[in-house]
Amino acid sequence: MAAAQAGVTSALSRPKSGWNHHYIQQLMQARQAYWQGNPLRAIQEYAQLIHHAPQRYLADLYGEQGNVYYRIGAFYAAGNDYIHSVRNLIREKNLRGARTLIPIVAQINPNAAYQLTIQLNHQETNHHGGTTDYANTLAVSASYRRPF
Predict the structure, then answer these.
(1) Which structural domain, as residue segments, surrounds residue 41?
(2) Beta-carbon neighbour count of residue 133 at 10 Å?
(3) Using the 8-state DSSP alphabet, how is residue 57 labeled?
(4) How many structural domains compose the chain?
(5) Is 116 domain-assigned?
(6) CA distance 121 to 140
(7) N or C end of the chain: smaller count of CB under 10 Å?
(8) Is 28 helix (H, G, I), strand (E, B) or coil?
(9) Which CA distances in Å does 59 have to 38, 64, 88, 132?
(10) Taking the C-alpha atoms of 112, 78, 84 and 143 in order, what is their torsion angle to the nearest 10 degrees?
(11) What's 134's domain CATH number?
(12) pTM for this one?
């Protein structure tokens, strides 16, 4: 799970263009708190950002806050934040980004990952004029099954 989680961190290493100075400053405070070993303060900073930031920033913010929860072993909270991130990515039509996070969600919450895969496939079907890649859908959904 750590290798997949590291990919989330590297994908969110820089703020999106268009962030105003206030959001960048608060984002850097959240990151600095995390880097200095104060994850609770980082979570508080991310929570404030999430509460006040425009919707277009939420996928990144939930993803980063999820990374903090993940690193302190709060996997349920991390999974919830990753779920919010995927939903926002789907809403933003960033289908590739959403599909990248689904395997991470699947390791924490397979049922939520399955539901998100359905939403993503529905969005892809609408986006691609009524066709979807069912081979990929089957491969992704098969990866969520746990061995008995």
Answers:
(1) 2-142
(2) 13
(3) G
(4) 1
(5) yes
(6) 11
(7) C
(8) helix
(9) 22, 9, 5, 24
(10) -30
(11) 1.25.40
(12) 0.74
Residue 84 structure tokens: 């919010």
Place of tokens 């980082």: 42
Average pLDDT, integer, range 44-69: 95
**Is residue 148, in this structure, part of any structural domain at all?**
no
DSSP three-state, residue 92: coil
The answer on pLDDT for 119 being more than 80 is yes
pLDDT at position 3: 40
Distance CA 135, CA 126 (A): 17
What single-letter DSSP state applies at residue 53? S
- Convert the pLDDT of each residue in 77-113 to its tens digit: 999 999 999 999 999 999 999 999 999 999 999 999 9
* Burial status of residue 76 (CB atoms within 10 A of its CB: 0-12, 13-18, 19 or more): exposed
Structure tokens at 114: 């399955």
Q: Is residue 147 part of a domain?
A: no
Q: What is the per-residue pLDDT for 135?
A: 47
Residues 6+ apart with CB under 8 A from 100: 7, 8, 11
Task: Give the torsion through C-alpha atoms of 117, 122, 123, 125, to 10 deg.
Answer: 120
DSSP secondary structure letter of residue 145? P
Query: What tokens were used for 34?
Result: 């995390």
